[in-house]
Amino acid sequence: MGALRTPREKWVEEGLRTLASGGVDAVRVEALAKSLGVTKGGFYGYFADRDALLTEMLDTWEREATDEVLDRIAHEDGDTRDKARLAGQLTFSERLRPIDLAVRDWARRDRTVAERLRRVDNTRMALLREAIGTVCTDPDEIEARSLLAFCVAIGNHFLAADHPGRTRAEVLARAGDLILARPPAAAEPDRPHR
């Protein structure tokens, strides 16, 4: 009886874990095999080369970061704004956040990855536009608020500032409330008295 092969998904998962912790240059067949406790020979039963693994890793990340998030929020109760908040929590979960940040770094050096990232970010921005469009109608304001929401979600992970008297979670919650709030009613123009 032959030895059991390491499942394909294990190679992809270990590749994503390594990408998240060490960047794309750390994703090497020999290192992955060592981490999995197997020989690298099994790798070539699934993948033609490292590039094929990298492509499948990106496919997995994209599916988890968009399709699975959209599917999950479609089955949740709540209004569009609640669903946008949930999408943010899922997108920047403990699992996906480090992968997402590593993909962003990788995209700075690889045009194909940059295009993939653009597609994922466009999907995320479309969801934000839809959510924010439920509280305001001005297309310029919708776009600006969507950009702010996305920048907060990503930039928060790079910011080391303190928030005196407040926790980061409290400040993020308030930022979300501001971004998703209805705009103040336009003041009635002054009418001349007769």
CATH superfamily: Tetracycline Repressor, domain 2
The profile of the biggest β sheet is: none
User: Looking at the structure, what is the overall shape?
Assistant: elongated
Which architecture per CATH?
Answer: Orthogonal Bundle
SSE sequence, one letter per element: HHHHHHHH
Number of strands: 0
Structural class: mainly alpha
Distance between the termini: 100 Å
Q: What is the total number of structural domains?
A: 1
Rg over C-alpha atoms, rounded to the nearest angstrom = 22 Å
**CATH class descriptor:** Mainly Alpha
Question: Share of helix among residues?
Answer: 55-70%
Q: What does the model show?
A:
- The chain has one domain (8-179): Tetracycline Repressor, domain 2 (Orthogonal Bundle), CATH 1.10.357.
- The model has no long low-confidence stretch (mean pLDDT 90).
- Helix 1 (8-22) packs across helix 3, helix 4 (80-91) packs antiparallel against helix 6 and helix 7 packs antiparallel against helix 8.
- It starts with 7 loop residues before the first helix and ends in a 15-residue tail after the last helix.
- The protein has helices at residues 8-22, 29-36, 50-74, 80-91, 96-107, 111-132, 139-155, 168-179.
- It is mostly helical and 194 residues long.
- The chain has eight helices and no strands.
